[in-house]
Amino acid sequence: MGINRNIAFLGSVTIIFVTLAAVVALWGIYSLNNAFISLHQYEITTKIETIKIFRDVNYVSRLTRNIMLGSDYDDDMQELVAIAGTITESFDTLTRATRSAIDQKLVKQARIDTAAFVDNCIERMKRIKDVPADQRNNAYKNYRKVATPLAMKSRASFRAIIQNADLRFDMGNKQFEKTIYRTLIIIVVAGILIAVFFQLSLRRYKERRMEEAALRKAHQRLEQRIAERTADLVLTNSTLLEKIKALKTTEHILRESRDNAVQAGKLAVLGQMSAGISHEISHPLTAIHTFTDNATNLLERGDVPEALENLGIISRMTDRIGAIVAEIKLFSRKSPDKKQAISIVNALNHASMLVEPQRRQLDVILDVQPFQETLQVWAEVVRFEQVLVNLLRNSLDALSEQSNKRITVTVTRHEPEIHIVISDTGTGIPEEVIPRLFESFVTTKPSGQGLGLGLAISHMIITEFGGKLTARNPDAGGAEFTIVLKEAIDG
After folding, report:
1. Which residues contact 485 (CB under 8 A, 6 or more apart)?
2. Confidence (pTM)
3. Hey, where are the domains in the chain?
4. Helix (H, G, I), strand (E, B), or coil: what is residue 482?
5. 437 vs 469: CA distance, rounded Å
6. pLDDT tens across 417-439, in order?
7. What's 334's DSSP letter?
């Protein structure tokens, strides 16, 4: 019996040690998980605020350019000062989100670089306040020599902030994985120790032919241990439920951030197309004014048929303006996160209408090859049209300096998928850029003409639809983008 008591004591000590080790390991995982979530939130905040500042700095460049090229000085100057305040607020948010001295140093440097650029722009705009609008062009040439290096330095600081946030997140992720592995090892070793203990106890009990009372006591101890393990499992299950809840919260935040980034991309596209859209609306309005005057004169002369013809033209012009405004309203609204069967021909028509002003201005041929008009894909209509607009505008930008200006759209069925190919006769994509083409802030456009987010957002949208977006340079020249989505079949 003395040996049995020693074995029981040794087993108790082993179980206590293993239980404590498991509790410590689980607590370490819980604490590290909280730190990991906090680090992930910091990465999200950093990227969102950096994108906002990027957008505002780009807007500052556009406002200063407009002022120097003869736009309304007071309105644009007031907007320029307001944007400077918005940039300051974004930097305040970014500063509060910092987690280390390195983060603070990078944000501080980015703030200094951006302030130098914005202050330089405001100061130069103040100098040319009294300069006639038609004489500001020379000042614009001198401004670009000074402002462009400042803007490039500011953008480099933002890239350093994002790279540092990504690095910190990767390091935290690796640390979390190492802790998980160590915990698994502890649990496995604990299981082995407990198994060895039970084997030793069973052998000792059989060898010494323990009394029935001793067997009952062993049974009671076993039940007690099972109860303890059950309690541990209940505690572990509760902890896992809390982690699942926290992960769902984080996923919700990420989804909202993604939707906001997509919405910002759509509004940025509308801003870049605003000049062409304004022309599309102002031209019919001018025509309406002219035909209204004509109709009035005709009615005064009693020429009712001719007046009615003028009124019919006015009605058609009004319908045209209404169609343009409806397309803009549909494109700019925040899209619901729900996939459905989308008509490809309708989506292409809507996207083509939005880029029509730029297409006519550049005199580009848009050749949509005939295809089965009943074809549908699983997608969300507004975000799918946003992808088409982004790809068509990229092709139009690539053709601005070309003599042979053609964009070709082909739609083919490869059951169970639909392939939508948009190709152009531009200069193509630099080979060294293709592997990184769909990353954020990667662009082949000149400085100041884009943040490099359009293709990244398009790739994210198509991926969420369960499809693929690829790019290549065909042998015939130019660039080619292919959208692959699952076909939606009625019934």
Report:
1. 377, 378, 379, 417, 418, 420, 462, 465, 466, 467
2. 0.40
3. 2-271, 273-333, 335-486
4. strand
5. 11
6. 999 999 999 999 999 998 898 88
7. P
Measured between alpha carbons, how far is 22 from 37 in angstroms, rounded to an integer? 22
For the beta sheet containing 468-472, the strands, ordered from the edge strand earlier in sequence to the opposite edge, are: 365-368, 406-414, 417-424, 480-486, 468-472
Neighbours of 339 (CB within 10 A): 18
Q: CA-to-CA distance for 319 and 327, rounded, in angstroms?
A: 12
Q: What is the DSSP string of 240-267?
A: HHHHHHHHHHHHHHHHHHHHHHHHHHHH
| Residue in the structure block whose two tokens are 């550049």 | 362
Please provide the distance, in angstroms rounded to a whole number, between the alpha carbons at the two ends of the chain: 77
Torsion of CA 140, 141, 143, 145, to 10 degrees: 160
The token pair that represents 147 in the structure block: 């402002």
- What torsion do the CA atoms of 360, 361, 367, 373 make, to the nearest 10 degrees? -50
Hey, how many other C-beta atoms are within 10 angstroms of the C-beta on 403? 6
Q: Give the residue among 466, 286, 259, 246 at the shortest CA–CA distance from 378.
A: 466
**Secondary structure (3-state) at 78:** helix
The contacts of residue 174 (CB under 8 Å, 6+ apart) are none
Per the DSSP assignment, residues forming a β-bridge with 419 are: 412, 484
Tokens of 320: 């045209």
Note the CATH number of domain 335-486. Answer: 3.30.565.10
- pLDDT tens per residue across span 167-182: 776 776 777 677 776 7
**pLDDT, position 261:** 53
- CA torsion 144-149-154-157 (nearest 10°) is 160
Coil, strand or helix: which one is 379?
strand
Are 261 and 49 in contact, with CB atoms under 8 Å apart?
A: no
C-alpha 199/C-alpha 360 separation (Å) is 85
